[in-house]
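Fig. S4 source data, part A: sequence.
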Amino acid sequence: MGTKLKAVGECLAALEDFRQAQIDRVEAKVLQPLGNYEAVCRKAKEELQYSHSAREKELNKQRAVDRARVHDPANRQKISALQKAKIECLRTTTGFEDYMEKFESKKIQDLKVILGEYMHAQMTLHAKALELYTIAYQNLHSINEQEETEVFRQGLHPQKRKSHTATASDGSLLHRTGSDPSLSSSMHRSELY
């Protein structure tokens, strides 16, 4: 029984070791990249604020161009400078929109990879756990209760340790003890009747 229970214990210990390795893997492949994503999101937020500021400037320039056309339609130089500034703001806004599309695409790809790593780690853990629990279960159920009970009985009665079992001609069990022949003959008689 000791070897079977030891095997069960080893399976459970191996499972815990594997579980710890999976925790380390999740920390390295899932939590760390998600933690690093904070800086990426912060940068995107700064870009958004910059773009919003540029958009506000664009709107102000548009209003200035409209006012200049209404108040001083002959001042082509001022209108031209304002239109150039408007085009520059529009270019900045378009560039930011491209940046945000790329950011969103990369975010989706990264999330797929990160969450895929998590799912893979969990599937691997559960598959290994099932394998180890199966081995432990088989070892546990391969313990022969009758043999183990007999070993226990022999431990309770140290004088019977050297005994071994033989079968009499009528099919009953005979115990022979190498140490005391009188004990052996009395045991034979009691078991035969």
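Fig. S4 source data, part B ends here. The radius of gyration is 42 Å.
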